Amino acid sequence: MLRILVLISVVGIAISSPKEKVLQKRSYDPSMRGFWPMNADHTIMDQIYYTYGFEYGVTVDNTQHGNICSGYRFYGNNGSYIYFHSDGQITIQYSFTLLVYAYPTGVAGPIIYGSGSADLWQTAANQALLRIRSQRDMSAYYPNLTTNGLVQNEWNFIGATYDYNSGEEKLYLNGAVVNSTNIGSIEFARVGNIVVGAVTDDARYYKGLVTCMQLYDRALSPDEIIEAEKLCTKCPAVVRGDPHLTTFDGRAYSFQGTCWYTLVKDCLNTNPEFEIRANFAPRDDVDVLKTRTVAINVTVGEESIIVDTHNTVSGNSNDLKFWERHIDVSFNDNTVMISFTVKDTTFTLRWKGRKHIFTADVSGTAYHGKVCGLLGNADGDSHNDFMMSDGKVSKDVNEFGESWKVADMRCE
Ligand SMILES: *[C@@H]1O[C@H](CO)[C@@H](O)[C@H](O)[C@H]1NC(C)=O
Ligand SMILES: *[C@@H]1O[C@H](CO)[C@@H](O)[C@H](O)[C@H]1NC(C)=O
Ligand SMILES: *[C@@H]1O[C@H](CO)[C@@H](O)[C@H](O)[C@H]1NC(C)=O
Ligand SMILES: *[C@@H]1O[C@H](CO)[C@@H](O)[C@H](O)[C@H]1NC(C)=O
Ligand SMILES: [Ca+2]
Description:
The chain is mainly beta. The strands form 4 sheets. Strands 1, 3, 4, 6, 11, 12, 13 and 15 form an 8-stranded antiparallel beta sheet that branches. 7% of the residues lie in helices and 39% in strands. It is elongated, with a radius of gyration of 24 Å. It has 3 helices and 28 strands. It has 2 domains: 3-229, Jelly Rolls (Sandwich), CATH 2.60.120.200; 237-402. Residues 1-23 have low confidence and may be disordered. It has helices at residues 2-15, 222-229, 397-403; strands at 32-36, 54-56, 59-61, 71-75, 81-84, 96-104, 109-114, 118-124, 127-132, 145-147, 156-162, 168-173, 176-182, 194-196, 207-216, 237-240, 244-246, 252-254, 259-266, 274-282, 291-300, 303-308, 313-315, 328-332, 335-342, 345-352, 357-363, 371-372. Bound molecules: 2-acetamido-2-deoxy-beta-D-glucopyranose (NAG) (4 copies) and calcium ion. Residues 143-147, 179 line the site of one 2-acetamido-2-deoxy-beta-D-glucopyranose.
């Protein structure tokens, strides 16, 4: 007994050391029952319980539409769907919130079919429909709620909430309540399988894209739904070529810096938890001054890695204890994938050394508008992206760019 107590206290000291400030695992709202990003980075793995869906006749589509660059494509036939099995974890009994981004290219079909509680459908080119059912009483039908604000060939952020205490059922579109009714207090079945795209007892099949599906076991407020939308991954920030940069908020510009610059860093803390730097070097194959990215330095807490043009990764990870390590590195073809998580925010970085292309995805709410550097502040507004290191917003791209040069670095 004594020995166990001693062991626990040692671990306790270790994990409460200041280096443990950065959390490895994301923390989500405790009422979240499932979060399926449904994009190239996260496939169809639930980020809460780490279970996978079963996919049939669908593809990952990485074409940019608006500010979303990745989703799952459904082909509008009976063989094109994803089945998410519940072992009880995605079961809803009382209140719920269901959220999803849908980009319909067809005219009708089930977007989310929750076997025990609620369905979201496209029922006409511009119509979305919410149907609530209680599988405890199959004969009981509650009025469907519709909206004619759905836009075909665009991303629509669709939501449904039901509050057991008030009996209120609401249909949301792009963050606003578009229809609601009171159906009294009902209980749902204790089965929670979800199907996206096609169901057996209906001849309508969803055609189009889907991404960022979220399920909560309570009715979120309108403000919380706007926050929840920020969990959806937007198009990555990009550094490529001469360098041409595109910020997290989609502002594109060119900037010829040389040596090390801050691309992204934590601006929430005066002592940043993380920083991503790029080394720009002059090209020797052109006469005019053109630079390109030759290395990326990713630092999280005490851990620091550098990736070069040969995709070789070096750094201090191996010298650190496991709890001091935060950076995941994997290789896929000619790409180095780097990811790390701080608070509720995950950064997914891709580096193609030979092509000098770097991209960065951010997903989470804690750093919304709270990062800074050449890739902007990630608050959804491209106008304020030229914020300099002193906090002022510049109109001049060179003044902005130079403000993010790392002082006292030597480059050849
Ligand atoms: C699915 O569609 C194919 C082709 O239209 C058809 O042959 C098949 O019977 C259908 N299967 C089901 C289960 O409806
Ligand atoms: C409610 O919506 C479902 C799914 O689209 C449909 O099958 C059903 O007929 C609708 N019910 C009514 C009463 O319109
Ligand atoms: C709300 O849904 C009902 C039922 O489908 C529909 O008749 C009504 O027109 C909808 N209201 C709005 C504002 O779209
Ligand atoms: C990488 O960046 C961190 C700060 O983010 C810095 O402390 C470290 O010295 C850099 N490493 C190299 C080799 O430049
Ligand atoms: Ca911005």
